Amino acid sequence: MFSGSIVALITPFTQDGEVDFVSLKKLVDYHVEAGTNGIVAVGTTGESATLTVEEHVKVVMKTVEFADGRIPVIAGTGANATHESVTFSRLLNNSGIAGCLSVTPYYNKPTQEGLYLHYKAIAEESDVPQILYNVPGRTAVDLLPETVARLAEIESIVALKDATGDLSRVKIHRELCGEDFILLSGDDSTGLDFVKAGGQGVISVTNNIAAADMATMLKLASEGKFEEADIINQRLMTLHKNLFVESSPIPVKWAAHQLGLIKNGSLRLPLTVLSEKAQPIVAQAMKQACIV
Q1: Which domain holds residue 171?
Q2: Site (Part of a proton relay during catalysis): which residue positions (predicted)?
Q3: 75 by DSSP, 3-state: which?
Q4: Is 133 considered catalytic here?
């Protein structure tokens, strides 16, 4: 259902801070042409925390419209208030999305029982498959494997995006959740190793600017051609790392602008454009990756 190279899509803005739908369409077309296997619209990389509910839903709906059935669109529906995530789920029912991706509630630091009840409530209000998203480095809460296993028993919860970078969890999740549960990496630096360990794909930041390479790498990996996939991954490794030289998506939006994929690298406060000090670091990584 969800596998291969999936992009955690950036949300482009105009200079005055409005959503740039012209650039959004360009990004969707870019990923279709590059062979990307799926788009996550308005996930955390899409600056979901800074969009209004109305903007959030509109960006998802326009992404579905621009995709026009050519590529599946997964909607980011995460929030640190359960009622807000439930609202997103309700508003996006019957919208044409392929699924929902919900990050663990940030800042609140809920218990494992709280996390279970949070995701259960979201699943009960949605008509599409649900993907859990664990990224403790940014949310200050860790969705433990035992809780993932409990949630996997809910029929509509079909996958986990694991951005811990802990490759030992692939085996643990597989044993606890079964062979049919989908495991996706959310960490580009370890993404290929995650797939080698038994994962089915990567929801990627790097994919925003190196879509064809990521699609080829994950296709090779799915065919067991790991040596060939490794060659691509090593070329991209500095990019994987340096796209986080400042808080994501700051560097990747700057890079996308340099490549002409979006009109500018604008972000919404409290995020700011890539610093002059960091720009050469990202530029060099792009050069090493051979995407410029």
Answers
A1: 4-234
A2: 44, 107
A3: strand
A4: yes
Give whole-number Cα distances, 229 to 4, 29, 158, 164, 223, in Å: 13, 24, 26, 22, 10
- Among candidate residues 133, 196, 253, 277, the one labeled active-site is 133
How many structural domains does the chain have?
1
pLDDT digits (tens, 9 = 90+) for 231-279: 999 999 999 999 999 999 999 999 999 999 999 999 999 999 999 999 9
Q: Exactly one of 161, 196, 225, 241 is catalytic; which is it?
A: 161
User: CATH code at 16?
Assistant: 3.20.20.70
The reply to whether 145 falls in a domain is yes
The verdict on residue 277 lying in a domain is no
The number of residues in the chain equals 292
Task: List strand residue ranges (DSSP E) for 94-153, in order.
Answer: 99-103, 130-134
Q: What pLDDT digit, counting tens, does each position of 141-173 carry?
A: 999 999 999 999 999 999 999 999 999 999 999
Residues making up the binding site for pyruvate:
45, 203
Which residues participate in the annotated binding site?
A: 45, 203
Q: Which tokens go with 147?
A: 């809780």
The rounded distance, in Å, linking the Cα atoms of 287 and 255 is 11
Question: Residue 178 falls within a domain, yes or no?
Answer: yes
Residue 74 lies in a domain: yes
Q: Do 244 and 165 meet the contact criterion of CB atoms below 8 Å apart?
A: no
Q: What CA dihedral angle connects 174, 113, 133 and 237, to 10 degrees? A: -70
